[in-house]
Structures are given as C-alpha cells and as structure tokens.
Design brief:
Two copies of one chain form a homodimer.
Chain A: H1 7-14, H2 18-26, H3 33-46, H4 52-59, E1 64-69, H5 76-90, E2 94-99, H6 104-115, E3 121-124, E4 146-149, E5 160-163, H7 165-178, E6 184-187, H8 194-209, E7 219-220, H9 226-237, E8 245-248, H10 251-263, E9 273-278, E10 291-294, H11 297-312, E11 321-324, E12 327-329
Helix pairs in contact in A: 1-2, 1-3, 5-11, 7-8, 9-10
The structure holds a DNA duplex (16 and 16 nucleotides).
Chain lengths: 344, 344
Amino acid sequence: MTKPATMKQIAERAQVSIGTVSHVVNGTAPVREKLRKRVLEVIAHLGYQPSQLARGLRRDTTNMLGMVIPDITNPFFPAVVRGVEDVAFNKSYRVVLCNTDNDPAKEKAYIDELRSYRPAGLLIIPASERSMSSELGYSIPQGIPLIFLDRRPLDWKGDAVMVANEEGAFQATQYLLKMGHTRMAMLSGPSHVTNAVERMAGFRRALAKNNVKITPEYVQETRFDRDSGYRSALRLLNMLPRPTAIFAANDMVALGALLAVREMGLRCPKDVSIIGFDDQDLCIFTDPALSSVHQSGYQMGATAARLLLERISGKKARPQQIVLPTELRIRNSVVAPHEMHPKD
Amino acid sequence: MTKPATMKQIAERAQVSIGTVSHVVNGTAPVREKLRKRVLEVIAHLGYQPSQLARGLRRDTTNMLGMVIPDITNPFFPAVVRGVEDVAFNKSYRVVLCNTDNDPAKEKAYIDELRSYRPAGLLIIPASERSMSSELGYSIPQGIPLIFLDRRPLDWKGDAVMVANEEGAFQATQYLLKMGHTRMAMLSGPSHVTNAVERMAGFRRALAKNNVKITPEYVQETRFDRDSGYRSALRLLNMLPRPTAIFAANDMVALGALLAVREMGLRCPKDVSIIGFDDQDLCIFTDPALSSVHQSGYQMGATAARLLLERISGKKARPQQIVLPTELRIRNSVVAPHEMHPKD
DNA sequence: TTGTATGCGTTATCAG
DNA sequence: CTGATAACGCATACAA
C-alpha cells in the first residue's frame, strides 16, 4: 500500500458515504454512534490521514503558519522560532520556516510562494525596513493575518511585536558613560533595519544627555553578523585616538569585536570595553563574560504567535504594536577607561 | 483584490483557454509567441501565483522538503538546516522545518502530518534510534524519498548522512590519554541515539587500547543539552577521586560541564580538562577556549539535500550511507592532569 | 498549436 | 442523521 488512504476508501470499507466520513473526521455533524465507531476503526486500521492539500484547497486555508527569518544561523532567531513553535504546535498549527539570508529578493520569493500555500497566518522578521513596501514591487498580502517581529517595515501600521530597542541601547550607553568612557564607539547594525536604527537612537540620546560629543568615525555601520562586526571593529581599533568603549548592535557583532580586540593584541575590557545586545546564552561563557542588553527571543516568538492565533480566529481588535522590555545585564566586559587607572 | 488570482481569471483576461495558460506557466507544450506574451503580461499584471495546493493535489507531490530536527535551540542543527536550505532553494525546493523537541510523540505527529502535505522528500534527524520503527506504531513512509541525518534508526538500511563519530571520539580520548589523564570521565549523551552510542564506543576503544580501566561511575548518561550536562558534571565533580578529564558528547554538554566546574570553585583546565564534540562557533570564545571534535553541520545538510534531490529526480542507485569526516581541534581546555604538576 | 473535460481528495450544501 | 454532488485550482489526456 504505497499510496495514502483516501476518504473514499474509508467510506467504502466502512459502508458509509464519504460525507459521513468527513463528518466524523471533523465533528461537523452528529453521526450515529455505531457508524462513528465503524468509521473510526477503519481509519485507525488504514492509518488514514486527511490530505492537507485537498483540505486546504477546499477550505482555502491550511494549518500552516508561515515564518520568515533573516538568518537561522544567528541563535537569536531560532529562539524566536522556538517560541512561535511552542504555542503554535499546541493549537495544531505547524510552522513553515523560511530563511531569507537577509536577501530581499529571496524574501520576496519565499513570501510569494508561501502565500500560494494558503497559510493561516504569516510571521515575518523582515530583511529590511523596505521589505514588502510597494517600491519593492509587491504589497502586503491581503486577507491573511500578518505579524511583524523584531523589526518592521517603515510604514507598517498593523500588528507587530518588538522590544524596547531605544531604551535598551540608552541604558547600555548610559552605563558605559557612567563608567567614565567618553571615546564611545558604536557598531551600529544595518541602517535599513528598524531595530538597528532604534538602538542607534538610544546610543545618541545617551551621549547627548551626558554632553559627550559623538565622533562620526566612531560609529560604523555593520551587518548583524560576526564577520561584519569583526571587520568594522578592526577599523575602529586602528583609529587614533582609539575608542575606549564599543557598543555593538547585537551579540554576534560584539563577538566579532571581541575577536578583533584579541587579534590586535589588545585586551577586553582593559584596553577596550564592549557591550552587546540580545544577551544570548553564550554571553556567560565568553572571555570576558559579555555584558549585554537582554531581550527574550522566546517571549517575542510566543507573544507574536499568540497574537497571530487571535487574529486567525477572527479577533478584530485594532492593530497592536507590542513592545517587550529589555534589561541591561552587566558582566565583565566593561571597565573604566584606561586613562582612569594610569598605572597600566 | 483580496483573493489571489486564479488561472481561470488569467485565461479570461488573456482571451485564451485555461489549458493554454497552464502550458505557458509550465512550459509543458509550445504556445504561439503572441499568445504566450499576452498570457505572461496578464500574469505579471495580476501578480498571479499558481496555487501550490491545487498543483500539489493534482500532481500528487509538492516542492516542499520536510525536515525534522530535534532541537532548533542547539546551534548545530540550524547549521544543518542552513546547508539543506542553500541547496534546496536553488533547485526551487522549499524546506518545511519541524522541531520535535526530542519528543518521539511530537516527531510522529509532525511526520504523519508532513506526509499529508505530499512533500517531495523528507530529511529527518530522528529523536531516537527507535524513531519510526514498527514498535512505535508506524513505519517508514513509502513512496517518498527519505534521508536520515546525523543519527539513524537502528535498523535503517536506506540513505543516511552522518559523521565519523566513533573515530572522532577516539581521537579526542586518545589526546586526553596522551596528556597523561587516567581518571577519564564521559558525559555520554542519550543512549538511545546512535551518534551518542558511537561516540561512547570511540571513548571506550581508546581507553581499552591504552589499557586504562574504565570507571563505570565516570560515565554519565546525559541529554544533549547544556542543563543536562551541567547536572551530570556536578555529579562527576563530587566523586572521590575526582576525574581529571571529561569528554562531553557534544558542545552543549561541554558548556554545561564548564559551568559546573566554575560553580564548584574549580578551574578548567587546571583542575579538570574538558573536550567537546561539534566544534561550534562559540568554542573559540569560551573561557578557556574549548577543544572539540569538529564536524560541519552545514556540509552534512548540504550533502543530504543533494542526495535527496537525486532521489527525487528518480535516481535509483542503491542506498548510500555517507560518513563525513571529523577532526580534533585543540584549544585551551585540556592540560596535563593535576598530579603531573604537583606544584599546584 | 489550442481548447475541453476529467479528476486529484476534501468540505459544504442540500435533499431526503 | 445520512447520502449525493458541486466546487476548490490546477495538470493533463484527448479532441479539434
């Protein structure tokens, strides 16, 4: 029996009509107990599984949740996925994961195709703030609930779940300032991504509030990966005077910076303090343990999934833009700047 | 236009039959250039995407590759996924990711449902060596290409892609032995998972070859996550005499061990040497940098995906069990045992 | 080269 | 309560 059983076969074996089988499968109408049992038996016997394709075609929707993420290789995103999956699975939704590799073209390809599978909803961490904007040649999918996570398109007015990026970055920068740093650098993340922009804003606000002038060369735009952080940090570290503190837009970038520091024969935190963003699990293991702005990817995913499921079940409330908290986690990668302990 | 365009609409607008539209979409029959262009224009204009549901139902297969992994939270698996996705995407296949959380029941639920979506193929990292065995109440899906990765069901005779677990573990253990360790412990991973069993075998072989007796309490079965490694390491570290070296079945477990060492006020490697398996990116960042047996998750995924695509396109060659190499990467988490530098 | 018609496996509507 | 039957959107065999 190489082919899956169909409803028709079940119906024949159980001596009922195909409609009746459908009713017992879906509980969509009462069925006489005797028949019901017979049908259920045949189903169990044949290991029948309803064709999701046929069902989806007919119902014009499936139990899939389409999820689009930029980089599965950055552990922050798997954490988000995990959060989504945990709440989705329990409600009988399955998540279809698409990795865009931060490529808007790939993102478009994935989303377009995803739609043609008629998922019940979409969860998108956009590759860029211009993702899915009209300029990009396509618009927001209509008629299917959609939530943005972590970042959002510039003009998006619908549901979204993010974190307090500006505030988190502000806290981190404040802390650096309070430790006495003034030669403050930032590895900023991509300027076309909203959360990076917000983190940058927090950085700037803290500097302004403390009247420390921003040195333009000290803020370097990076991608959100380790290698990009590494290369930009190298640039930073070769400047004169050298910055004494680096705020990295995420932990991957911070790790790259750590690598650069080592490679230049410098020491963190003695020669340069570093602080990251995300507070991934590995922060407690690095040498030195990395101070970072904590956010919970799991919470973000779970929250978004819950909201999405509400939308799917028809809740019509007006759009929510949920902002989850961030919190500075202090470890060993920051110390007062060099000048303040001249004995070195 | 809230609903997706259908072929019928395209046909009407382009003044052709629906069959013709199908032919230009699929290149399944020559169409007069004039008509072809007209159809293509309408398609572009309406942003038509063929319904994958309808297509799948009709063709009895889709462009989806079902992929099942045990724990998206362990960075090794996302690396595998990335490898799969890279080769799949280029060939127009999409990967549907399912996270089983190492739960056989969840695994079964996912696989059963996956099948009803008629994916072109399946890539499975099984939760247990008994996954998909008949005892578990269901058998290997028929009629759809299937490849196991990383681990395999005990009696599986079909395609599989793994790494040289036994050999890698042997090398690691040899190295520890050569450094002078004799009180050798292992955090073994789950005994119901083939790669853990193989790693254990390598460990035992090395000990046997060097005539060092195995201390049964020194080998602790763990899960493959950090927390389990942490707890088991704590047990290990409280034994008298205390083992001087720990071989962890993967890096997550090794990290847990590192944590335990710290928490007990001990030092790695001075008091206890640790070596991991996987050689994840973070190994170079830990304190101390973690020695580990390298394997490439990306390669594993890419290799498996290539093999799967061959099967999908009908290649009938006999089953392949591909074994990728492993290689010991020495860093700073291992040193000669305490007794050998008694000055401490 | 193009059009027509059938069926893929379901669900849903409508009689009975 | 149960049984026919018509879509759902597409691919394909067959006719024209």
